[in-house]
Amino acid sequence: ETGVTQTPRHLVMGMTNKKSLKCEQHLGHNAMYWYKQSAKKPLELMFVYNFKEQTENNSVPSRFSPECPNSSHLFLHLHTLQPEDSALYLCASSASRGLTMGKLFFGSGTQLSVL
Amino acid sequence: QKEVEQDPGPLSVPEGAIVSLNCTYSNSAFQYFMWYRQYSRKGPELLMYTYSSGNKEDGRFTAQVDKSSKYISLFIRDSQPSDSATYLCASYQKVTFGTGTKLQVIP
């Protein structure tokens, strides 16, 4: 399998649930990203990991907790979410957070609905 | 002010038309720009990237940057129904995206 794979594709959760989103890349990249995509809003960068180290956190609420055990895997742990957190969550990877960082390869996303 | 802005559309054109998609940016330090295409229920895919001013052509697609006016454009010649998607512009340095313009090419 090649590219960036995200699971699950769809997730419905209550505000008291705990769930995790998973992302795996098979491109040999060293940087991984979480983005949030809401209707009629720009893609919002949430977290960046470069060589497994978190390098950016764009003021994301603590109810979102990322984890990057290695350069190929990225998780987003969710707990006590709010209905306004419903969105498409996209994972991306790039060669590294350097000159080529802009060439992002995206997964298909997880469509999250918080009830 | 948003760093990259784009008209969300939707933009509807007949098949074969020339499409012009536009973005503006506010940060003069931005030098590299990218266009991504996103089909429904898919993640964005990189379409083209370009540096500084001038044009870059790839098949039916031409990317243009005007640094003096901080304007980025993507032209699609001989548009096809398969071009129907949302097109996002982005700056390379910070990977800041516009809202995306939804394009529909009608057969």
Q: Main attributes?
A:
heterodimer, A: 115 residues, mainly beta, 7-stranded mixed sheet, 4-stranded antiparallel sheet, globular, B: 107 residues, 5-stranded antiparallel sheet, 10 strands, 0% helix
Layout of helices and strands:
The complex is a heterodimer of chains A (115) and B (107).
Chain A: E1 4-7, E2 10-13, E3 18-25, E4 31-37, E5 44-50, E6 53-57, E7 64-70, E8 73-79, E9 87-94, E10 105-106, E11 110-114
Parallel strand pairs in A: 2-11
Antiparallel strand pairs in A: 1-3, 3-8, 4-5, 4-9, 5-6, 7-8, 9-10, 9-11
Chain B: E1 4-6, E2 11-14, E3 19-25, E4 32-38, E5 45-51, E6 54-58, E7 61-66, E8 71-76, E9 85-91, E10 101-106
Parallel strand pairs in B: 2-10
Antiparallel strand pairs in B: 1-3, 3-8, 4-5, 4-9, 6-7, 7-8, 9-10
Read across the widest sheet of chain B, the strand sequence of neighbours is 1-3-8-7-6
Instruction: Say how many strands of chain A there are.
Output: 11
Quaternary arrangement of the chains shown?
A: heterodimer
Q: Count the strands of chain B? A: 10
Rg of Cα set of chain B: 13 Å
Low-pLDDT regions of chain A: none
Per DSSP, the total helix count of chain A is 0
Individual helix count of chain B: 0
Helix fraction of chain B by DSSP (H/I, runs of at least 4)? under 10%
Query: What is the helix/strand order of chain B?
Result: EEEEEEEEEE
**For the report, how would you describe the main beta sheet of chain B?**
5 strands, antiparallel
Secondary-structure-derived class of chain B: mainly beta
Calculate the mean pLDDT score of chain A and round it.
Answer: 91
Instruction: State the low-pLDDT regions of chain B, or none.
Output: none
Terminal CA distance of chain A reads 33 Å
Relative strand content of chain A: over 45%
Beta-strand content bin of chain B: over 45%
Cα shape of chain B: globular
Structural class of chain A comes to mainly beta
Q: Give the overall form of chain A.
A: globular
